[in-house]
Specification:
Blueprint: H1 3-26, H2 28-64, H3 68-121, H4 125-128, H5 133-142, H6 146-172, H7 176-222, H8 224-232, H9 236-288, H10 294-335, E1 358-365, E2 375-382, E3 387-391, H11 398-405, E4 413-418, E5 421-422, H12 428-433, E6 435-438, H13 449-454, H14 465-473, H15 477-481, H16 503-516, E7 521-525, H17 533-547, E8 551-555, H18 559-562, E9 567-572, E10 575-580, H19 582-588, H20 591-602
Parallel strand pairs: 3-8, 3-9, 6-7, 7-8
Antiparallel strand pairs: 1-2, 1-4, 4-5, 9-10
Helix pairs in contact: 1-2, 1-6, 1-10, 2-3, 2-6, 2-10, 3-6, 5-10, 6-10, 7-9, 7-10, 9-10, 14-16, 19-20
Bound molecules: adenosine-5'-diphosphate.
Length: 607
């Protein structure tokens, strides 16, 4: 075995060991119960077989013996024992099913929680880069149920192994060759399973993207966000057709694989049947010769059948464990993702209060795996107590700059500093605690109004008056007062009694969320694009107050808003091409003046 192969094997074995430790650590008592039940269930078949032998032999001697009544009494006692064993089997089976159910749920919920934790911990890049989507999809699809299956398969494998060992002991007293036959009959089936577990894994890995495409189309068809357009543009038929095509491709390939596996299993199974009856003939021959009793013949035959069944179960279990193990590598792949944006070993405290503000010095940035430069040679200062506005066409880099400011990405060149401290030397959580951002695509939480706003500052209790104050600043208070349960109304249409808001009303809620956060830096990316002019005007009345002591960054296309800023930067293709106050920029008669002119002439503020 090459070194690399050996390393892979070791890693795989470790994965299985880790999966077991994981299950044990999540629910030790349930795991222990499961193991005990497993072992007991493994031993019981031997008792059943042995009792059967005793019964048959006693019946045989009873037939020829003088006292049928006495014989039957003895037989009845044996049958009672056999019934007790049968009952014990039933009880154990129910208990084991219960244990496995509970254990399965505990493990699934726990692993899902781990996946959630990792989903939050990874960089934003993970969600913005298609390279990672397969990993996320696979981890979500496989990880929650594989560890449980490992436990289930492991318990059933151990159980089968215990039965096998017990039966094999009995069988070897007949003839050593019988053991070999059992092995020979079971191995081909196992081989088939191992082989196809590997093939299935390779197929899944290759087809994840197609599966995701199908899932995406399914989502388009069933998600509320697309329901309007799907109806209006009559897209249902088209999307359904695409879904059918994708699924049928996957189905054809999977069915092909399954058919080949079934054929191979059939061949292996037929071989096993021949071996069973061949051995039965041998056992019958020994009985006819008088080497063994009739009871022994029955016991041997049962033992043989049970061993073969157990061995098949053991090997099937190993094959299944092997398959789970392969699929667990998806979980590993996902868990191994390390954030690129790393906290420093010894983080410096975030300057509070900021004195000079945030400086960008010759910052360059490209998104990972892209050629295009998103920001080029950006230098600017965002000062506390000031409103800084960014203006520029779509795709000119404004939002990207904000992402860098929040350290969702690190610059490729240059530096971003807060009061002279590089962002990379600050604790990420500490930095972000001091930034309040409402992005263009802000979240709409299907929660109560109070929570929707309160989520902006997790340190604030739901009853805190600052929530209502923020709502008033954002111009949302009146809307909220008109809702059925005021601040306790659930928003959106996902849940009972939820009330849907208009886009502009949602935006006001998002603004309130930004306001309630007691952060030194407030960033508003198109914060008022969906507000009517009056509402916008009202909000901006509060802006100066909000900016007191804070650094406010405003991204907007509305010049009525932008012109009030203390400093305006004009972006174009990732560069800043003009900077100044409204008056300075108008006097400059450059791009800003031109854009301002166009909007003034159009009269209506565009969004
Ligand atoms: P703006 O906010 O000015 O509209 P953005 O900062 O969102 O512009 O985008 C700047 C450039 O970066 C655009 O060319 C856009 O296509 C690209 N871009 C934005 N987000 C990503 C991303 N996650 N991955 C790759 N490129 C991106």
């Amino acid at each position: 075995m090459s070194d690399k192969r050996r390393r892979v094997k070791i890693r795989e074995a470790m994965r299985l060991g880790r999966a077991l430790r994981l299950v044990w650590s999540i629910a030790p008592r349930w795991t222990a119960a499961s193991v005990i039940l497993t072992v007991l269930q493994g031993i019981l078949p031997l008792a059943a077989v042995w009792l059967m032998k005793l019964i048959v032999d006693r019946v045989a001697t009873g037939i020829t013996g003088p006292d049928h009544g006495a014989a039957f009494r003895e037989i009845a006692v044996l049958i009672a024992w056999a019934a007790a064993v049968g009952l014990a089997v039933v009880v154990m089976r129910s208990l084991a099913a219960l244990t496995d159910q509970v254990l399965g749920r505990l493990v699934t919920d726990h692993v899902t929680d781990i996946i959630h934790a990792q989903s939050v911990a990874v960089d934003l890049e993970f969600y913005e880069n298609p390279r990672y989507h397969d990993a996320l999809y696979r981890a979500q699809q496989e990880a929650p149920y594989r560890p449980t299956q490992i436990v289930n398969d492991l318990t059933s494998t151990i159980q089968a192994l215990v039965t096998l060992l017990a039966m094999a002991g009995l069988l070897l007293t007949l003839h050593w060759a019988v053991g070999l036959i059992v092995l020979g009959a079971a191995i081909p089936g196992a081989f088939v399973r191992f082989r196809f577990a590997g093939k299935l894994f390779a197929w899944r890995s290759r087809r994840t993207e197609v599966e995701r495409q199908a899932y995406y189309v399914h989502w388009l068809l069933t998600d509320s966000g697309h329901a309007k357009e799907v109806r209006l543009f009559d897209l249902g038929g088209r999307f359904r057709e695409r879904y059918r095509q994708l699924r049928s491709l996957l189905r054809r390939e999977l069915v092909g694989l399954t058919v080949r596996r079934s054929l191979a299993e059939l061949a292996a199974g037929a071989g096993a049947v021949i071996a069973v009856f061949g051995t039965f003939a041998f056992i019958a021959w020994r009985a006819v010769q008088g080497v063994i009793t009739v009871g022994m013949m029955v016991a041997y035959y049962q033992a043989f059948q049970t061993s073969l069944g157990s061995l098949q179960a053991v090997l099937r279990g190993f094959a299944a464990l092997y398959e789970h193990n392969l699929f667990l590598s998806y979980y590993d792949e996902f868990m191994a993702l390390e954030p690129r944006v790393r906290p420093p070993a010894q983080p410096l405290p975030m300057p509070r209060p900021m004195a000079e503000g945030i400086r960008f010095d010759n910052v360059d940035f490209s998104y990972p795996d892209t050629e295009r430069i998103a920001l080029r040679d950006i230098s600017l200062t965002i000062k506390p107590g000031e409103v800084t506005a960014f203006v520029g066409p779509n795709g000119s880099g404004k939002t990207t700059l904000v992402k860098l400011l929040c350290r969702l990405y690190d610059p490729a060149a240059g530096a971003i500093t807060v009061d002279g401290v590089d962002l990379r030397h600050l604790d990420v959580v500490d930095l972000r605690r001091d930034i309040s951002v409402i992005f263009q695509d802000f979240a709409q939480y299907q929660l109560t109004v109070r929570e929707n706003i309160g989520l902006g500052n997790v340190g604030v209790s739901e009853k805190d008056p600052s929530i209502e104050a923020a709502a008033r600043d954002a111009g949302a208070h009146e809307t909220i007062s008109g809702l059925r349960h005021g601040y306790d109304t659930i928003l959106g249409k996902w849940f009972d009694e939820g009330e849907e808001l208009s886009v502009g009303e949602w935006q006001k809620i998002a603004l309130a969320r930004a306001f309630v956060r007691n952060a030194q830096i407030l960033v508003l990316d198109e914060p008022t694009s969906a507000l009517d002019p009056q509402a916008e005007w009202d909000v901006f009345q509060h802006f100066r107050e909000l900016a007191r002591g804070r650094a406010v960054v405003l991204i907007s296309h509305r010049f009525s808003t932008v012109r009030t800023a203390d400093r305006i930067h004009i972006f174009d293709q990732g560069r800043i091409i003009e900077s100044g106050t409204h008056e300075e920029l108008v006097a400059l008669d450059g791009r800003y003046a031109q854009m301002y002119e166009v909007q003034a002439r159009a009269y209506q503020p565009s969004s």
